Structures are given as C-alpha cells and as structure tokens.
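Protocol step 4 of 6: structure prediction from sequence.
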Amino acid sequence: MDETPETDEIRGAARGTAPVPLSVLDLVTVGAGRTATDALRTSVRMARLAESRGFHRYWVAEHHSMPGVASSSPAVILAHLAAHTDRIRLGSGGVMLPNHAPLVIAEQFGTLEAMAPGRVDLGLGRAPGTDGATAAALRRTQRLGEGADDFPEQLAELVRFLDDDFPDGHPYARIHAVPGPVQATSPGGVQSPRRPPVWLLGSSGFSARLAGTLGLPFAFAHHFSAQNTIPALDLYRASFRPSAVLDAPYALIGVSALAADEEKEARRQVLAAALSMVRLRTGRPGLVPTPEEAESYEFSPMEREFVDSWNANVVHGTADEVRAGLDGLQKRTGADELMITGNAHSGDVRLRSYELIADAYGLPGEPAAQV
C-alpha cells in the first residue's frame, strides 16, 4: 500500500543516535509558588526548545480540576504554541472525547489545522481525565459509563465531521465542521481538504484493539500504566488491519523521564513529583511541591511503597543514565516513538532535562540558552 501524506505526518524520523523519534508530552505543570501563567510561559519555551533540537512532536494533555496541571484546554494551548513555533508537530495527548461533542472537536482542530497547516495531531482518549464528579460537571450527566462505552460511535462521528462525508439521508449530512473540507467544495473554495491525523490513546487494551482494528496510530500511557504496556502493544499489533492511514502498526509510548546534571539532583526532583502523585491519588491534589518540601515530608509506609513503585517507572539520573534507560525501554517494547514527559516543580529543571536528553543523543540544533 502506498503511503499517503497523512502517513508521512504520522511516522517520524529518528535523529542523532536516538533509536526512534523522540517527542514531548507536556502536562503544563504548576509548581508551588508559581502561577498558571508561569507554567504556560514554560510550555512556550519548551516547545521552542523541542523544535530547535529536533524532537518530532509536542503534545499537551487534557486534565481537569487539578491545581498542579494547567492543561484543561488543549486546543487553546496548542493555538498559543502554534503562534510561537514553525515546524514541530503539535497535538493533543489527548482530548478526552467523551467530555465533548464530536462536532466541537472537529471545529477546534479544523481551526488549529488552518493555523498550522500540516503539523497538527488529534490524539483522543476515552477516560475523563479527572474524577467522577468533575466528569459529571463536564458532561452534564451522571451516567459516565455511557461516554466510555460509546467511544467507538463518538469516534466514528468525529471522523465523519473531519472528512465531511456523512452519507445522504444521515441527520448530520447537511452539517459541516468549519474550517474543514466543505470549504474546498464550495463555489470558489480553495481550502485544503487535509485534516489532522487521528491517534487513539490508551492505558489498557480497549483502545489498543480499537486502534489496531481501524488501522490508526496508537499512543500508550506507559508513564502511568507501565504494567500494561507490552500486553497493550502486543494486542495493538495483533489486531492491526491496514487502512488508508497506515499500512503497518505505529505505536508511541509516553515515558516519564527526567535528566539532571547530577544523579542526586534527579532523585530530589522525582521525589517531589512523586509526592504530588501521592496527594493526587489520595484525594488531595495540589501544586507540585518543591524538592525541599518533599525531603522534609514524612511518608507513611504505604505512601513510601507507592513512591518507590512510581519512581521505578521514571527514567531518571544523569543524561547518560536516562539515555540508557530510554534505549532499554524502547528495545523491550519495540515502540516506534518515545514521547517524554518530565514532571518537576521548576520549569527550568524541565527545560534542562530536555536539553540534556537532546545532547545525550546528539540531536541537532541550538542549546536551550540560545532559543
């Protein structure tokens, strides 16, 4: 099967000595003593660094009601990043589709495609990205299970809006997502009919199987569901059916990784991030604490067990140690792309981490200080 332009937008190229393309996942984390404005400014700096150093794509996630995560509106953030970058692919990692009407997402990402032609990805998830009460407020319903169960139907509707190809007689046949392909077929229309590639995201087998069956690219959340990574990727590959989008499976995995100039400093930073996760998992979400606060915090035995388990899946240390950890993970999973997320209190620490990783792999471009 010949590869389409959309296929070219999906598959990245490894650079430097990296075994596969490297990308960035940004949660727009907010540290104690910092504001959402600070976090969003860091995101601009990180996107520009990622672009200058040859990272393939830059995705932002959708989360709600979490003080330490300012990424509740991916489309808004992506529009801002598009204005500050020129080449790097931008996308959602992801939009939680059950929280939204498919037409709204088609319009938002059609608008993004018009802003940054040929470099927008639409990653979709079926989880709420928050707790049940917040999901109910977002969806205006208490029947939350319906959204997840209806995900395949919602996805099909969204793709129809993106392609503007509802069949005659369908209730939505005369409804068009604008900007979109309909503008190319209107009198005098010159709008590009291309639209953002759709990715499915997951942390279990459901989306892996669906992505494979539909022949779509798949992104797995290894950074918070490491035990399911290999089973999910195996299921995706076994379920894969060639499509107009892909002739072979393409899977990336999200990886939590943090590099520092010294191993001790990397351990301090990931301890603070782990404390943030402890609070989130115990119903006390807040801003990302400082390393000093984490060092003085008295972890209970149960909390300490969680921290040890969590940090076992965070690739951290010096640049060489992180490179070795990423190489080993890619070899074990066979991932076609690694999407790195670095959670830390300080934006400068996160920027330094990506710079060190880029240097470790000999990625091209200017160092962060010159971006």
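Step 5 (inspection) to follow. Residues 263-281 form the longest helix (19 residues).
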